[in-house]
Prior knowledge:
- The protein is mostly helical.
- It has 10 helices and no strands.
- The protein has helices at residues 3-13, 15-39, 49-56, 60-63, 70-94, 99-127, 132-158, 167-186, 194-210, 212-226.
- Helix 2 (15-39) packs across helix 3 (49-56), helix 5 runs parallel beside helix 7 (132-158) and helix 6 packs across helix 8 (167-186).
- It is elongated and about 60 Å long.
- The N and C termini lie far apart (79 Å).
Amino acid sequence: MSASKQSQIRRRNDPSQSSALRKSERTRQAILDSALDFLWTHPFRELTVGELMSLAGTSRSAFYQYFADLNELMEALLRGIEDDIFAAATAWLEGEGDPIPLLEETMAGLVGVCYRQGPILRAVSDAAPMDGRLEKAWTGFLHDFDVAVTDRIEQHQAAGLIKQFEARPIAIALNRMDAYLLIHHFGRRPRGNQELVQKAILRIWISTLYGDEALAASDSENRSKRRVPKSKNK
């Protein structure tokens, strides 16, 4: 083992170094959380490093230990919400079995993530047309989901679960609908109704991909779950 590698291991195992790393992670997260708090009520163009660090409760100079500028901060926020959405989408994107319950699970997770972090999507999408870096980040964000959904549609077509059609345009249409509906309802306070948004998105996905019969079956099953058994007591 090289001396450099041994030194890295010693630093990682040193309690004082670990404590410093945890403090550093907490400071970075505090900056990200403060940015999200600001974006609930203000557009990205009004954000300044000074105001952000005042919200985070630390010095202005600390910002530059973690981010080169505010654009890099927004890119980090966007990567974070992308990771969270992909984690929520794993059920449908990778799961086996009946796709409808998997899609229901995925949409519940997707809406939950955006209910909590919607201003990030609004801020980046609003700034993208006037900012080359954020436009690239936003385009890449959407592209990643377009590829994932296209691949899953084609897999389900090959398995006979979805009728044959050009998958990519449908994937793009569904993803853009999701993005702008979620931004509209959860991009600022007061937020829209989480349950109603989830139901709307789910209905469109099921009917578009799996057909009206699958949608009717899903509606019937959900009604059965909600039905309250009659009391046997007179």
